[in-house]
Design brief:
By secondary structure, this protein is mostly helical. Helices cover 51% and strands 7% of the residues.
Length: 150
């Protein structure tokens, strides 16, 4: 279904004579449905997502910025990292446009209290740093210790 939707999107963009060099695609990752008893692993999500993108998204598109799609902050980072760590590279910059996955822990730590601002700021900084590393395929699960310690 993901491939069919992306094919339709790029067909419509072509019909409207949109300059692909001027867009950033914000798709979802190819994930198992929440009620599916067998959830795809990180490597499978990365492989299936990139397969769909490679079949439909022209190399002229400069960037793909994924939404977190309700994933946990750590899992969204792992998926992004896996896509950027696969051999062969990508014709586009594969990055993130996470709102909830960046802010979730920071909001939980803040709780609206001025006294919690430093802890919330630290959580936001760490998650942004981890996702920056994931854009290069350089994120490692051990990095999460820094966040737990902060």
């Amino acid at each position: 279904a993901n491939t069919a939707v992306l094919h339709g999107v790029f067909h419509a963009l072509h019909e409207q004579d949109v300059r692909l060099e001027g867009i950033i695609l914000k798709p979802s990752m190819v994930l198992s449905g929440k009620s599916c008893p067998a959830q795809a692993g990180v490597a499978e999500v990365a492989e299936r997502t990139l397969r769909s993108l490679r079949r439909t998204v022209p190399a002229a598109v400069p960037g793909i910025a994924f939404l977190s799609g309700g994933q946990s902050d750590e899992l969204a980072t792992e998926h992004l990292n896996a896509m950027n760590a696969l051999p062969g590279g990508n014709p586009w910059l594969v990055s993130f446009s996470y709102g909830r996955a960046l802010q979730d822990l920071a909001m939980k730590r803040w709780k609206g209290s001025p006294g919690n601002v430093a802890a919330a700021r630290s959580a936001l900084y760490c998650r942004a740093k981890f996702n920056s590393a994931a854009c290069r395929g350089a994120y490692r699960g051990e990095m999460e210790r820094e966040l737990r310690a902060a």
